[in-house]
């Protein structure tokens, strides 16, 4: 009976094996271990197959865009301008807090390794802190550091009363246990909002997490400031990462959108995306979302920041989005550019979460 | 500037006011309080408007069902049979544990007030415990009890080593703070899986909650045992309650379905539901889902258990589902009945969670 279950489970999940490049034997073994008990349902982590997207890059736009009306051009949602407005408000608040209490907010960043995209992000965050009058500290750890070294850096920042927010720059090297490390960030300093308790409180109606994850919070702010009413709209989130896709879908739902989540196992992503009034692209796949994926007039928020080699750029690469911008801007009614869209607003949200944390710590309203 | 924001927020959310029966002044006041800071985004709890569905009851089937082919009849997914199979496995495991360790699993139920539907559920749970050899205890508190009384009952069960699972029967009377009470259930005895940390771990890939909420876990088990492959399927969850709709949508996504969540603010629920291969109805609205909401061949899981007066029944009422069964069974390929579908399997999952908790507590594999 039990082995029947195992075979059944293996059959049920056989279609995955091609996509995830596990042999069916390995797949069967993984599922067998967890599932062949009383239930036929497997354990969740045993079915956490990676999302591997096949992208039809639109590097040759010329032939494709012909069918679109060249006159129709989406409004560009300028993330830099919006981020500046927000940061200006934060700067005033930091000054007011300093005058009233003598304290300023402090942000600590733990950075492991030398990923150049991560370095860029961290550099931007630190620069933004300086601009807003927020103290910042970085702990740079080597690529091959131990988990204990990361946890020790965390502890030091936990104990430091001048630090109100701690972020661990992701992704971490493979040998480190990301879940364990994120679980160790104290809730009241978890300005990235990645702790599962914050995530649960984001998901559940009637609750409010201590911190909203920065990118989802930024997406909502971009929509609201662009005059987009979210309630009742169909929103499609492309990608389901723990740090962007998942929390963005949950937050859009809290704002009463009707949300669908598209991922690498979705059979007809293009068709589903085309139903959406609001498309949030967060798959991490350059140019995944083509013009044909969009309903005319849709609002497009492009979270993708994919580095592509470009020797002509300062750091040897440039960032492009998940959305084929040239095509999409002819179909959408509004779109965020990459760079200059979600990125700057995400950084502003990090500053804001740090400010809110400091206000909470110093009981300053 | 700030008052501009307030007006803007009020305008953005004005369309809600009709549905949620708040005056626009009250609405503006609620949103104003939380939102007119640096951001234009409101706080989440300030926009937790209730889901008020308008149901087109199908009490007069006769005229409607004529257009369906009378020959086409969905397979009935027999929740009672599946629950018996699972419970039989649990019973064996309880016996094995008792023989090996001398301990049996114990479940405690905290029941506030005298809601007759809640009484029925609790009765069923206790009876199921007895059948499986699981110890059960009930703490019956009066409708007007204080929060402290509930928390005291919780504490007693937390300290009792013979209790491995505690559930607070919902809904609680309005005067009690449900979030606070559910937060107080110790994680390792939270067999309902309603603690936000368990919910966060359910939502996030790479993580596994200590307990999956019973109804969502039961829905997945019903699908798997009915031979339904979930991966890649379009699933529509109707309703987004913290205890059913939300966790079911998260769990279906962990199983790689492409999930859309329909709620009372969804503009075209019928059209969206009709795209689904798997429909989970959990709105708590009798007969909300008509035959016309279903794609031919869809799988329908009806979580609704709506009591309707019926003097001919033992307790003066009977339960009907969220799905108009007579219509749906002519369109769907498989459907769960109410009663006898999700209900018994939910109870079996509660027993299983309690068993797993006891095994964990006594380090018994």
UniProtKB/TrEMBL annotation, chains A, B:
GO biological process: photorespiration; tetrahydrofolate interconversion
A GO CC term assigned to this protein in UniProt: cytosol
Molecular-function GO term, any one: methylenetetrahydrofolate dehydrogenase (NADP+) activity
Pfam families membership: THF_DHG_CYH (PF00763), THF_DHG_CYH_C (PF02882)
Residue ranges annotated for the Tetrahydrofolate dehydrogenase/cyclohydrolase catalytic domain, each copy included: 77-192
The Tetrahydrofolate dehydrogenase/cyclohydrolase NAD(P)-binding domain, residue ranges: 213-361
Pathway it works in: One-carbon metabolism; tetrahydrofolate interconversion
This protein's UniProt keywords: Hydrolase, Multifunctional enzyme, NADP, One-carbon metabolism, Oxidoreductase, Photorespiration
Reactions listed under catalytic activity: (6R)-5,10-methylene-5,6,7,8-tetrahydrofolate + NADP(+) = (6R)-5,10-methenyltetrahydrofolate + NADPH
Function: Catalyzes the oxidation of 5,10-methylenetetrahydrofolate to 5,10-methenyltetrahydrofolate and then the hydrolysis of 5,10-methenyltetrahydrofolate to 10-formyltetrahydrofolate.
Subunit annotation: Homodimer.
Stated family: Belongs to the tetrahydrofolate dehydrogenase/cyclohydrolase family.
PANTHER family, per the entry: BIFUNCTIONAL PROTEIN FOLD 1, MITOCHONDRIAL, C-1-TETRAHYDROFOLATE SYNTHASE, CYTOPLASMIC-RELATED
Protein's name in the database: Bifunctional protein FolD 1, mitochondrial isoform X2
Gene: LOC103501504
